[in-house]
Amino acid sequence: ARQSMPGMMETVLNIGLTTNTIQGLIKKTENPRFVYDAYRRLISMYADVVMEKSSGIEPPDGQGIRQKLEHILNTFKEKNGLKNDTDLTAEQWEYISGSYKQEIKNTLGAEFPDDSETQLQGSIEAVFRSWNGARAVSYRNIENIPDKWGTAVNIQSMVFGNMGKNSATGVAFTRNPATGENHFYGEWLPNAQGEDVVAGLRTPNPINEQTKTAETQDLPSLESCMPSLYGQLSKIRTNLETHYNDMQDIEFTIQEGKLWMLQTRVGKRNGGAAIKMAVDMV
């Protein structure tokens, strides 16, 4: 959008995975567990964003398709004694993907598309429609953003934070948005995609040792687990603040040991933090 609207616009990840392309990605990566994990994520997000919300379907019982798919996964994990999503094997994710598609057909009366172009077109239309979604409209009213501005749709090649132990994803602020202190502040998760960090599905880890709290004291930081990549990210943090002369809200992914920057935007902050940042940056 012309003005950042954090969390208001829809996103669909991993578009293009089909029963045919899956085999090619498995051959290329030699990592079937990653591929089927990415596939089930696509199925869930596409069903939620494109097939239900964008189509104007209101679940009669108040439980959307995404909640029903999460119930399938949670029930499977409970029956098989699995605690975390990262504990599932390739075969188990393949089974979950099939269960997801059957539930989508039963609940929404349509099949998840097994065609890359159909997935892409449906996702583009859904993001455009999300400009007029209830959350986005309410946000614009609060922030005095004109409805007539409209939005663009970004289509990006994927980088994957869920390819294994040396992959990760995270979000961060170049300064503490609550206090305004000049401390690099954020959260990350190994072997995950961005939604995992913000959706509350897993407890995120602190990005560094300095910003650990009593609740996160025992969780590993990115600084301790991947010191070289944390160093790269810290340099980028400095460069972004120097360029924009403002606190930035950033998203990043680490794919098999390589850091990728996904997004930067001016970060939200409270009143006290805004004053401190303004004074410190003079």
From TrEMBL:
InterPro entries: PPDK_AMP/ATP-bd, Pyruvate_phosphate_dikinase. Residues 2-213, 231-271 form the Pyruvate phosphate dikinase AMP/ATP-binding domain. Pfam families: PPDK_N. GO terms for molecular function: ATP binding; kinase activity; pyruvate, phosphate dikinase activity. This is Pyruvate phosphate dikinase AMP/ATP-binding domain-containing protein.
